Amino acid sequence: MVVAGLCRLLARRGVKVAPFKAQNMSNNSAVTVEGGEIGRAQAVQARAAGLEPSVRFNPILLKPGSDRSSQLVVRGRVAATVRAADYLTHRDRLAAVVNDELASLRTEFDAVICEGAGSPAEINLRATDLANMGLARAGGLPVVLVGDIDRGGLLAHLFGTVAILDPADQALIAGFLVNKFRGDATLLEPGLRQLAALTDRPSYGVLPYAQELWLDTEDSVSVLAGRVVGIPQPPVGSQSLRVGAIRLPRISNSTDIEALAAEPGVQVRWIDDAADAVGLDLLVLPGSKSTVADLDWLRARGLAEAIEAHARRGGVTLGICGGFQMLCRRIEDPVESGRAAVPGLGLLDAEIEFVAEKTLALHREPLSGYEIHHGRLGTSAAADWAGIGLCAPGRPVYGTHWHGVLDNNAFRRGWLTEVAAAAGRDGFVVAEDTDVPARRDAQLDRMADLLEEHADVTALLALLDGPPPVRATVSTGLRR
């Protein structure tokens, strides 16, 4: 969000700016203008900069399929499936890709704002690091450490991060930025002064916690952090819609759910227990990086039976991408799970076959949306749904491979009206003025405003001129 805010701030000032993240690890991805895929965060940052999403902004993407392996996406295309222990063998080749792409962007744009990944203090991973100090050293980039004070222990984290780095890495650390502060910032000032004295590095500002910044979550970590999606708003009519979205272990593109939560009177919660599926008006199965494995998880948790019971009661069901595939009669998957003829939930009369070549599609007209999936629709007797998917004749079960379709305001409003009618919520009224794309833009402007108001923007932008001045080396006093 800080990178997105800086991109929007600079774009508002007429600066030609681009975002960059050398390597992202996320199952929340987006399709680019070249027909590739990048991390969702870089697509949002590109929007902040007034640009279309491009594979140039995130040349390496890791999409975890399990705790030990990830799909490796290079310049938008699947290159391999890699294990963490084997990643060192790819490092030199990937470093060349990253450095070439960044060098190209720097010749084309006035400013490139690079987002790190995790923490630069993960010294056990320094040899393979491409996104933090490895990138900074290769490009001679000044580095600002952004600390999330909402997690606690911030001053120790900032000091310890600098101290544990090698002197050559430390030399590129320009200073600190505090994020998500609650309360009176003057109480933090003595600590920041002491931090400056200990590290010989300044703090560039203290950004306050802003509750409204919740759209476009980076990955499943934020999904796992809480149950309520968004900020519930009172209904326009006399009734609300109760929505449950299943929190799959390998969930992907969870941002689809956020468009529903943006609507007044639509109460959205993440659920992972069969008991939570009772009494819902709408049940959503989101995308998954490992469809068959997550389908097994649904059955083991009793959620498969709960989904089927919900449909039998006449409740509305929506499956998106992997969730859509789970709703079908059968799945043939020699690609992700290596299993054939896996029975689906059978709520849609269709079959899915996984193929090695991933479908990557960006749709603009008449509806906007995008597709990222290995599964392809085979034989089907289900009915067409709005040209974007399938529906079950005679009952409200819907499925689509399209992500982002609920961002289409008119489509979302019309479909929610159908959902309310099917659920018997005659008192639910769809708001006429909810504009999800505009809300996304408003949040980017809000982040830029927070930086303008609470950070030393002049000092931050001065870093665009080159590496920070050489500062004293910081030591913990521990032997390495």
Automatic annotation (TrEMBL):
InterPro entries associated with the record: Class_I_gatase-like (IPR029062), CobQ/CobB/MinD/ParA_Nub-bd_dom (IPR002586), CobQ_GATase1 (IPR033949), CobQ_synth (IPR004459), GATase_3 (IPR011698), P-loop_NTPase (IPR027417)
Domain annotation CobB/CobQ-like glutamine amidotransferase: ranges: 242-410
Annotated GO MF terms: ABC-type vitamin B12 transporter activity; catalytic activity
Residue ranges of every copy of the CobQ/CobB/MinD/ParA nucleotide binding domain listed in the record: 2-213
GO biological process: cobalamin biosynthetic process
A Pfam family matched in the record: CbiA
Pathway assignment: Cofactor biosynthesis; adenosylcobalamin biosynthesis
Keyword rRNA-binding included in the entry's annotation: no
Keyword Translocase on entry: no
Listed SUPFAM superfamilies: Class I glutamine amidotransferase-like, P-loop containing nucleoside triphosphate hydrolases
Catalytic-site annotation from UniProt: C321, H403
Keywords annotated in UniProt: Cobalamin biosynthesis, Glutamine amidotransferase
PROSITE patterns per record: GATASE_COBBQ
Function statement: Catalyzes amidations at positions B, D, E, and G on adenosylcobyrinic A,C-diamide. NH(2) groups are provided by glutamine, and one molecule of ATP is hydrogenolyzed for each amidation.
Family: Belongs to the CobB/CobQ family. CobQ subfamily.
Record's protein name: Cobyric acid synthase
Species per Swiss-Prot/TrEMBL record: Mycolicibacterium fallax
Gene transcribed to yield this protein: cobQ
